[in-house]
Amino acid sequence: MLRETPSVFLIAENRLLRETLVRILNKRGAFTVCGVSPCFPDNESALMAVPDADVLILDPASTRPLNYSFIARIVGNSPETRVVLINMEDDPEVFLECVRAGAIGYLTKDASAAEVVSGVRSVLEGQAVCPPHLCPELFRAFSRQWTGFPNARIKLELGLTRRQQQVIPYIAQGLTNKEIASQLGISEHTIKNHIHEIKRQLGAGDRLQIVDLSSFSAPLR
Predict the structure, then answer these.
(1) 87: part of which helix (H) or strand (E)?
(2) What CATH code would you report for 149-214?
(3) Tens of pLDDT along the chain (221 residues)?
(4) Could you give the residue range(s) of every CATH 1.10.10.10 domain in the chain?
(5) Cα–Cα 20 to 30 A to 149, which of 20, 32, 54, 132?
(6) What is the full DSSP assignment across 176-212?
(7) CATH fold for domain 7-136
(8) Interacting residues of 178 by C-beta distance below 8 A, sequence separation 6+
């Protein structure tokens, strides 16, 4: 349930961006900025304090690579907190990963400060916010979910997403990040993020260990 004056917590690495958004949010919005941080919380106590806000605005530059698990933990700790991502890539796969993690607002790098304020208002009213050209990706993802499911053992035991499962066989073939990106039709940066997360999930130190631990041999279709 929203407070009479909804609150916003802002996490953004760039000082100018933080100060500009705080000023505009406090001036134009019917809400208050209750907290500001230049980086993602690095301990559990700080993490637990963030969901006190009605809306959490995140700039991906505050963490490298983009921490999907952080978003999921925030939403898990406080389901009523609306997560809005700003300065995002115009990348369908990154967009879908953020939605899966629990974000309800997704604004790309060309969004103005006024659009950020409008986005915060919209999510407070129970709406989702994203660029119109990315909306079809949600429908396609939902359709794919009903036409094919990932290997149950890999998903349950290793905790990998379907896209991460698709990446591993190409790693086994010795393809570079650029080559894998070309095969899957997504950005090289997204592949880099996937591989980083796969290593973390599997406890692998390098690509060879990824292949050994996952026991993949052929691309998923």
Answers:
(1) strand 82-88
(2) 1.10.10.10
(3) 556 788 899 988 888 888 988 888 888 767 888 888 887 666 555 566 565 789 999 988 776 667 777 788 888 778 888 999 999 988 888 898 888 888 999 999 999 888 998 999 999 998 999 998 888 887 777 665 544 444 444 444 467 888 888 888 888 878 889 989 988 889 999 999 999 988 888 888 888 788 777 764 334 43
(4) 149-214
(5) 132
(6) -HHHHHHHHTS-HHHHHHHHHHHHHHHT-SSHHHHHH
(7) Rossmann fold (3.40.50)
(8) 188
